[in-house]
Each structure stands twice: as C-alpha cells, then as structure tokens.
Design a protein that fits this description.
The chain is an alpha/beta fold. The chain is built from six helices and 13 strands.
C-alpha cells in the first residue's frame, strides 16, 4: 500500500490518479492510522521550504514518518519540495529540515555572462549516473518536467541522476530506502508514470 502523505501541500490527487490507473493500492494519509498502513510512502510538496516544514510539523505525522523511514526502513519518495525537506536545511528559509539526508538545499546561481530565469520551469533532460530501481524501463536520457528555484548540489554523494540549468544539479537521489526527485514525475508523461510504478514494484522495505 502506497501512502501519499496529505499534509496540505502537493498535487496528491495527480499521484492518486496515476496509481489508480496502474491498479496499485494507495491511501491519502492525513492521519497516523492511515500512514501506518503503508509499505511505501510518497512525500509530495510545493511552495517554500519553511512553509512545507511548518505544515509537516503541524500535521501530527512527523514522528510516525521518522519511525517508518528511519527505523522500519520503508521506501519513501520525496518529490520537489518533498525531496528538499529531507535535507538538513535550505537557503530558502530558516527551518530545520527532516535531516534524513545530510546535505543543504541551495539556490540556483548565475554567472556574469549567463542569466537563467527563475524558477527553473519546463522540460529538461536527465543524465542517469547511477544504478537505481526507479530507472527500469526509463528512456536512457529522459526528459522530465521541472518547477523550482532551489536544489541539491550535483556533488551530493547519493545522486543517481543529474540535470543542468544554470548549473548542474542532483535531480534524483537515493540513499538506502530514501529516494528523492526534484522534478515532477506526475507531470512527465510516460517516463514519470514508469518511475512511479517502479517505486512501488522495484523497491522493498
């Protein structure tokens, strides 16, 4: 059972629709009892880092998420800001993150000669640089949809896919049972659907 964490942020209905079409069981988890049904967890997110952490901390789900992810080792997939809050902190705000991944989220930089509008919005190709169960059946150089201004640095040691905009970023990461994707698989057509399917079928607690 996939628990899509419903803490007031993220396009949870889009994920629910995809899993419904795939025939994969899911629950929209807004309370501890529904979250505890999970074998896999989707942590979505949109907006700012601090607001996402406030909503998550106020949801009453934080302790259970830590238990399921850190102790029971359930597979978890953080998406967009849902990936960013897995870090220790972000240049975007002052709140502490979940601290599941030992890194910091940074803002895109610009050189004196090249200006890249923010947010980074639209389609961008990915370079797959590591073995990851999410990639089964994905195009060798896939395109995914992005919408963000902050990111993990490309030198994050658990990066398995990179993308370039004003600078190179780690756009998909994996550390043990913890997965994160900066782009939006729910908006990325067949490659995105395949990645979400793989998250359920190819990962295990």
């Amino acid at each position: 059972m996939i628990a899509i964490v419903d803490y007031g942020l993220g396009n949870i209905r889009a994920f629910a629709n995809i899993y419904k079409r795939l025939g994969i069981p899911y629950v929209l988890a807004s309370d501890v009892d529904s979250l505890k049904q999970a074998t896999h967890i989707i942590l979505p997110g949109v907006g700012s880092f601090d607001y996402a952490m406030k909503k998550l901390n106020d949801s009453g789900l934080r302790d259970t998420l830590d238990e399921l992810v850190l102790n029971q080792k359930l597979p978890v997939l953080g998406i967009c800001v849902g990936m960013q809050v897995m870090a220790n902190a972000s240049e975007e705000g002052r709140s502490n993150g979940l601290g599941w991944l030992d890194t910091q989220v940074v803002k895109f930089g610009h050189s004196d000669t090249n200006f890249f509008p923010l947010p980074h919005m639209g389609w961008n190709s990915l370079e797959l640089v590591g073995d990851c169960p999410l990639f089964e059946g994905i195009d060798p150089k896939p395109s995914f949809y992005f919408l963000h201004s902050y990111h993990f640095k490309a030198d994050f040691p658990h990066a398995v896919a990179l993308a370039s905009y004003s600078n190179e970023i780690a756009c998909i990461v994996q550390k043990d049972n913890i997965y994160g994707i900066q782009c939006h698989p729910e908006k990325s057509h067949q490659n995105g659907v395949t990645l979400l399917k793989n998250f359920y079928e190819a990962t295990n607690a």
